[in-house]
Amino acid sequence: MNLVLQGGSGVFFRHALPAVISSSHFLHLTYPISLASVCGRPTGKPTALIRGGEKVTSAADFPWHVAIYDVTINMEQVCGGSLISTKFFISAAHCFHDQEKPLPPTRYIAAFARTKRRAEVNEPNSQYREIKMIHFQRYEGKKLNYANDIALVELSAAVDVTAWTLPVCVDWAGDQPQLDSGKLGMVVGYGSQPERPSDDLRFAMLPYVDKEICRKAVPDALAIFNDQPDKFCVGAVDGKTVSKGDSGGGMAFASDRQWFLRGVLSVGSLRDTTYSFFTNVTTFIPWIAGIIRQGETSGRRCGVDVDEMHVVDGKLAENNGFPWEVDIYAKRATRGIFKRMWTGVLINPNLIITCKSFSALPAKVSEPCGP
Question: How far is the C-alpha of 331 from the C-alpha of 26, rounded, in Å?
Fold first, then answer.
């Protein structure tokens, strides 16, 4: 089976699947399969947050939603988040901060595939993970009007990818268009109802609002947030808006049958059905990608699953023993067969280090650069 190696985001392959890169050369790649092709594709059937939103009937409708519980206050659900890989999710910085300093990761538990707010309610597909680390980007809380209100949260162990737990897409390559005023995005959360907190996960489609339009309509108490470069304005529709408990939850927009995370709920009104402000995820993508690359590539660390052996030992490498190994072949035009020319090392989903460039091979390759 041949798969075309795509530029930009890259296509990843199951063990021993060849990837066609041109009509005359191909690479034999052994690399863990990425979640890029399945992110943001819920298997449920959403028909309908929070305040006034409709109830979610299955966690498979929004499998990227994360419920964050505070273990110091009887496992109360305090915030939301959005899973972006098997070991990382994005939330709001203020969920893990007391206005003076960051709070310890051990204070929180992340839950997945939950449609019920109360942790004591059993749900068969739920997963729970402790939090290993919470990454901030120059966040100082109210002192700086909640600028940089975004947190990248690293789990202690990867989640199992199922129909009920699946990442939302992130625009890593910057291919998604700018949002137009009025474009509807999906928001998910356990937002409070008028008289009491909601026991059920809810969702609604809310509109992105251009800054100039927002400036004329937003209440004075929220106007300062409209001028912050890292936030965008979101409106309310038919009484549906965000509310307490929704903080950190994501706003995703559909693109080519996938949902892309574009915003993280930062600030809004606790009393009124009005405008709210989301941290613009696109602004922070280089920072997010840099942290994830340090410890994970598509849900997995680099250089793992390798037996400690030396090439000079002459031992036969087992299947998947060296997942970064690349074999480069050249096609002989006369007989249409491929000949292995040299090897390389995969260092990135789209980058290989080798001793020659295979983008402009001469018509006749006389000698490979290595054995």
Answer: 9
| CA-closest candidate to residue 134, choices 189, 83, 95 | 95
Q: Phi-psi category of 182—alpha, beta or left, where left has phi over 0 and alpha has psi -120 to 50?
A: left
- Report pLDDT for 211: 92
Backbone angles phi, psi at 235, to 5 degrees: -90, -175
Residue 278 has pLDDT above 60, yes or no: yes
Model-wide pTM > 0.85: no
Give tens-digit pLDDT for 187-228.
Answer: 888 865 555 667 888 888 899 999 999 998 888 888 899 999
Residue type, 298: S
The rounded distance, in Å, linking the Cα atoms of 18 and 95 is 44
Concatenated DSSP letters for 292-313?
HHHH-SSSS-TT-S-----GGG
- The token pair that represents 140 in the structure block: 């100082």
Tokens of 335: 């007989």
In the numeric block, the tokens 């947190």 are attached to 151
User: Which residues neighbour 233 within 8 Å (Cβ) at sequence distance 6 or greater?
Assistant: 208, 209, 210, 211, 213, 214, 218, 226, 275, 276, 277
Judge whether residue 312 has pLDDT over 70: no
Average pLDDT, the chain: 75
pLDDT(128) > 80: yes
Report the b/e string of 302-337 with b at 16+ CB within 10 A.
eeeeeeeeeeeeeeeeeeeebbbebbbbbbeeeeee
187 contact partners, CB below 8 Å, separation of at least 6: 49, 50, 53, 203, 204, 205, 206, 234, 242, 246, 249, 250, 251, 265
User: Rounded CA gap, 345 and 111, in Å?
Assistant: 37
Question: Confidence class of residue 308 from pLDDT cuts 50, 70 and 90?
Answer: very low
Of 37, 218, 195, 61, whose CA–CA distance to 125 is shortest?
A: 61
The whole-angstrom distance between residue 338's C-alpha and the CA centroid of its chain comes to 38
